[in-house]
Amino acid sequence: MLFDYETSRLRLKVVHADAADAVLDFYLRDRELFEKYEPDRMPNFYTLQYQRQMLLFEYNMSVQGKLFRFYIYEKNNSSRIIGTICVHNINRGYTSSCEVGYKFSSEVHHRGYASEALSRIMQLVFSELKIHRAMAWVLPDNRASIRLLERVGFIREGISRGYLLLHGVWMDHVQYSMLDSDAGLFYSADSGHIQ
Q: From residue 121, how far is each of 126, 173, 194 by CA, in Å?
């Protein structure tokens, strides 16, 4: 898998530690929104040092083919991160599976960027990583994220009870999956329909 891809409007890139300023800016802009859906942060999460260390770790994991975190940019603004999609827990062999997570800045919601970027990432998961099954989990009340997953072609499988510890409470999540055989059902943000 390469570390840099494009769609019609976006650039998707695995970045180095020298992008820590832009990554920190991305997390700070929507801190409250992101924290609502994710486990508690490390105490030093919102520091350049932490972000540099995390980016170095993630880059090395990408080189090893174990994790790919793509940061999303608009093509006409290559310095401001507007989202991220992470393909992680990549398992080979009998399960041939991975997990997918994402977040996008509130400033770009409802522009189709998330659908455009996630569709491209899922194409790469199946065509380049040769993964059989991708999974994603979402809080049952996160309707925007549920719509995104279903638009891209993920299928609802059911409730994973007590799946994730969020702010001291074990929360149920809806489990979604996509198989390599579903790959022809991608939503095209460029054309506005299922392909």
A: 9, 22, 16
Instruction: Report pTM.
Output: 0.91
Distance CA 104, CA 108 (A): 7
The size of the chain, in residues, is 195
E strand segments, 53-117: 68-74, 77-91, 97-104
Q: In this predicted model, what pLDDT tens digit does every residue of 88-129 receive, in sequence order?
A: 999 998 999 999 999 999 999 999 999 999 999 999 999 999
187: helix, coil or strand?
A: strand
pLDDT in tens, 42-75: 999 999 999 999 999 999 999 999 999 999 999 9
Measured distance CA(54)–CA(45) in Å, rounded: 9
Residues 27-58 as b/e (b if ≥16 CB within 10 A, e otherwise) read bebbeeebeebeeeeeeeeeeeebbbebbeeb
Helix (H) or strand (E) holding 145: helix 143-152
Q: How far apart are CA 80 and CA 125, in angstroms?
A: 25
